[in-house]
Amino acid sequence: MLRSELCIGCAACANACPFDAIGIVDNNKRVIHFSPEKCSNCSFECNDVCPTRAIERRPDKITLEFEYAFCLECGRRLMRTKKEAEYYAQQLLKMGEKVEFAFICDECKMKKISSVSDKYSGYLI
């Protein structure tokens, strides 16, 4: 069973599936195809890796589309979907971290971190 409302489009399930029963197409959107007819005697690896527990046992035959998130700093397309970024933002919030990091590319994160560290370099002994 697949609870599509819980799926964030992270593609962890597709990477874990040993039978290619879950396909990913990356264009202007991330498209995930669930093809349970390709499932065989597996250990439900897709269930184990799903961060939101959207998949329970064998997934339904369905195609889901997800829009990508874009960096708040430079505007580049992120390699995560909007729903995925929102999920990670919630996780960061729970940990007391900066939620905007879920919506910033790695390059811009490094620039932010280095600009903060440059301000404190004078304090090093």
From TrEMBL:
Q: Which SUPFAM superfamilies has this protein been placed in? A: 4Fe-4S ferredoxins
Q: PROSITE patterns recorded for this chain?
A: 4FE4S_FER_1 (PS00198), 4FE4S_FER_2 (PS51379)
Q: Name one Pfam family in it.
A: Fer4_7
Which keywords appear in this protein's UniProt record, sorted alphabetically? Answer: 4Fe-4S, Iron, Iron-sulfur, Metal-binding
Q: Where is the 4Fe-4S ferredoxin-type domain?
A: 1-27, 30-60
The domain of life for this entry's organism is: Archaea
Q: List the GO molecular function terms.
A: 4 iron, 4 sulfur cluster binding; metal ion binding; oxidoreductase activity
InterPro entries per record: 4Fe4S_Fe-S-bd (IPR017896), 4Fe4S_Fe_S_CS (IPR017900), Fe-S_Ferredoxin (IPR050572)
What name is this protein filed under? 4Fe-4S cluster-binding protein
Q: Which organism is it from?
A: Thermococcus barophilus (strain DSM 11836 / MP)
